[in-house]
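Sanity check

After download, print the first record. It should look like this:
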Amino acid sequence: MKKLLLLLVFIAVNACKEEKPKPMISEVADSSNRTEKLKLPEHTELLTFVTEDPSKYLDEIIANANGAVIYIDHWATWCGPCKAEFKEGTPALKAQFDGQVEFVYLCYQSKKALWEPNIAKFKVTGNHYFIERGEEEALFDQLSLEGFPTYTLINKKGEIVESGFDYRPSNPDTAELLTGLLKENP
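Expected structure tokens:
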């Protein structure tokens, strides 16, 4: 009886061990190309805030834009709609306003190890900031963020004009709004 009980315990313990799956051939090949995939596109800057106070991050973004119209894309690495916009909407909007609008990307609630690979994969040019956990609350309050993706438009005076999901790159109204902001006097 004792031997049977020991055998059952042995089987139960070994059955619960997590076995690491062996990589598939495509995964092995994929890891060998990792360096190439991580290459960031030209005109892409990974930035850190000078200020240590998250409530001043928005002020720093506005100051760095030097009076330009600013388009902020709030995203997360796990956000499917964010990535969908990166594929088509973002490149088209940027092509239309190249050199006229300051494009800023704030990545939230994500693993930092996935931040750069996503920027590289979707070829997202512009100024990128990674918002660490615990830093997002001040920005969420200032910009009334409720989820991702959310987009914020700031005029030449540094005033928030609009913020919400409706101002995504693929929405034609976004381009109209940006055109109007560019025509305004500072």
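If your output differs, re-run the checksum step. Summary of this record's structure: The CA atoms of residues 44 and 125 lie 4 Å apart.
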